[in-house]
Amino acid sequence: MRSLTIIIGCLATVVFAHNVTSGEHTEGQQYEGESLVWTPCPVSPTLDSDHQLECSHLLVPMDQFNRSNNGFNNEKHFNISLIRLRGKNATANGNINILLNPGGPGGSGMGFVYSHGERLNAIVGENFNLLSFDPRGVNSSTPYVKCYPTPGNQTLASQNSFRGTDPYNLTESSGNYWASSLIYTQACKQTMGEHGEYINTPQTAADMNSILDAVGQDALYYWGFSYGTILGQTYATMYPDKAKRVIIDGVANEFDWYTSFIDPEASDDTDKVFYGFVEECIKAGNESCPLAQLAETKEELTEKLLTTIWALRSEPAPVYVDNTVSGLVGFPDVWYKAVFKALYGPSGWPALAAALAPLVQGNATAFFLQYMLPSAAKAYNDYNEPDANTFVRYNDGVSGPARSPSTREELIPVILNGTNNTMFGSQEWADYFNKRSWAIPQTFSFVPERGVRTAHPLLILSTTYDPVCPLISARSANDAFVGSRLVEVQGYGHCSLAVPSDCINDIVSRYFSEGVLPDSNVVCAPNLPLPYFPAPESSSSGASSPVNTTGQGY
Ligand SMILES: *[C@@H]1O[C@H](CO)[C@@H](O)[C@H](O)[C@H]1NC(C)=O
Ligand SMILES: *[C@@H]1O[C@H](CO)[C@@H](O)[C@H](O)[C@H]1NC(C)=O
Ligand SMILES: *[C@@H]1O[C@H](CO)[C@@H](O)[C@H](O)[C@H]1NC(C)=O
Ligand SMILES: *[C@@H]1O[C@H](CO)[C@@H](O)[C@H](O)[C@H]1NC(C)=O
Ligand SMILES: *[C@@H]1O[C@H](CO)[C@@H](O)[C@H](O)[C@H]1NC(C)=O
Ligand SMILES: *[C@@H]1O[C@H](CO)[C@@H](O)[C@H](O)[C@H]1NC(C)=O
Ligand SMILES: *[C@@H]1O[C@H](CO)[C@@H](O)[C@H](O)[C@H]1NC(C)=O
Ligand SMILES: *[C@@H]1O[C@H](CO)[C@@H](O)[C@H](O)[C@H]1NC(C)=O
Ligand SMILES: *[C@@H]1O[C@H](CO)[C@@H](O)[C@H](O)[C@H]1NC(C)=O
Ligand SMILES: *[C@@H]1O[C@H](CO)[C@@H](O)[C@H](O)[C@H]1NC(C)=O
Ligand SMILES: *[C@@H]1O[C@H](CO)[C@@H](O)[C@H](O)[C@H]1NC(C)=O
Ligand SMILES: *[C@@H]1O[C@H](CO)[C@@H](O)[C@H](O)[C@H]1NC(C)=O
To answer: Atom 10, ligand 12: which residue's CA is nearest?
Structure first.
């Protein structure tokens, strides 16, 4: 049926590659020096592309670090999906592929190239190919992560799960969080079986070498966003000699990620971004930001917003349009699903302000229509991104009863203290209970290091105020990687793409093409007009550079 070849990669990892001269996909495209067959990708409605998009796949060993723990007869492998946007002049320049990771963990590289490929191509230019992949366990790679065999099974488990009376009082509800975590983590372990032990970042870093081998490329060119900075830092530490061009953008602290049960640093600037939303709204005035009509000052507006939203904890707002459209707008709907999400990128701020203004005035209908209708576009797929996120984070990090606070009573103060540096802290509580109860053992020995000397220094990018990956974490990476440079773009949002800046684009472009780094750390100005609350007349004309965020959870 299939013919498979085992190649010993240059780092003595085992690479499984299709024998491209036989069997399936003979109609596909092959390139010199590559062992892959590429076929045109399924057309995506979000892509307005004048570039060729091609897709392929690659079998990688289940365990990159133990060659006897693999094989095809017993299904011990992952099948990784690949996607590539070809630069129009890449062939004349050695066909170098820049690998991309969009974050998550659990984010789809396939989806990322569909949605952001053109924008990134405009930054790096036509001399490079952009290559991304659904990492092991993620989306179209197989087996993909899910904690329950079917969505029906998941619904059954969740309907009969949390029974807490007040989810915002940790002491009151800790018993429910605790008990729920015990069934969820069992399900994850059972459903994924042995593969579940190998869905972690060091394995994915090694998978990137399998990808490089398959495209005949010696050195890593890479741009990783958000969680992709953990992947990039991990790779650069494990394989420093191959790390030739590594950009980490919207940085998470790898030391906290791998060695700390609790991670308050990630929320260091979360509230500052919320206050920034309020401040920019007042500055923009009521023509651009409808919330501005409700208050004279940012303090007054903050007070009004928090009072309204906090009141929803005890009394959600009823919305009745008619007997086909009705429901309750509750605290988590507003504070987590709308406000917190909007902190990732200023492009969502005007819509949020337009929905919050009537809410504060007592009418929740606009909010409901904007944020709470089921998204018709969401394609059905029982791959579960939140579960994949859970797998990677807990498999990487300090998790499980033996490595965490052992009793419920010990856990409560640790969680409270670790999440009270932000007004958004309570959304993390259930997560920490699950992390504590995680049932899958850690199967790798990677530890982050300082003083890492890479083939070429890293380029590190950050906004000034990032809601989930603060500047302080970028500084930590800057300290860990010898010769690295930190470039900060002044503004709010997650990863540099949240705040368009020609200054950053030039630095990125020169880094990839010439290896040039700034002489010292620099601060870049954002392009004008600022993206927060564009004046009504400029919002249509000034849209030459779209400002969608990477859209990932971490
Ligand atoms: C690939 O398959 C062809 C035909 O089956 C065979 O002749 C060739 O030796 C195979 N190549 C490798 C590298 O296994
Ligand atoms: C490697 O995998 C084999 C097969 O699962 C196992 O028996 C062996 O103990 C593993 N070696 C290490 C060092 O984990
Ligand atoms: C790997 O996945 C691709 C689809 O992405 C599929 O066409 C191929 O048959 C799979 N290969 C194996 C060995 O499962
Ligand atoms: C294509 O790349 C070659 C080699 O680097 C360069 O000389 C040429 O100017 C490039 N063409 C375009 C259109 O960028
Ligand atoms: C998952 O992969 C499919 C291709 O198999 C792609 O069309 C889709 O966009 C991906 N999903 C997401 C969320 O990116
Ligand atoms: C759970 O999944 C199994 C298949 O694995 C199915 O037979 C069963 O009906 C599902 N149960 C529910 C409640 O959906
Ligand atoms: C939380 O719940 C506990 C136990 O029911 C109760 O003693 C405490 O007063 C509550 N705290 C708040 C802030 O409501
Ligand atoms: C909006 O602002 C303008 C000028 O700042 C003011 O004249 C107008 O009354 C405001 N509109 C509302 C509805 O507050
Ligand atoms: C609430 O707002 C909606 C529009 O979002 C409007 O149709 C409705 O009349 C308003 N309700 C009241 C009571 O003003
Ligand atoms: C967080 O809680 C701890 C006690 O658990 C307390 O000492 C600390 O002051 C609190 N920090 C904030 C910012 O509220
Ligand atoms: C509370 O958290 C801070 C960091 O946010 C940490 O420095 C401190 O040690 C923690 N205290 C306790 C009692 O866990
Ligand atoms: C940005 O996101 C919006 C809504 O999610 C979408 O309609 C739009 O097409 C996206 N734009 C780009 C350039 O991806």
So the answer is: 548
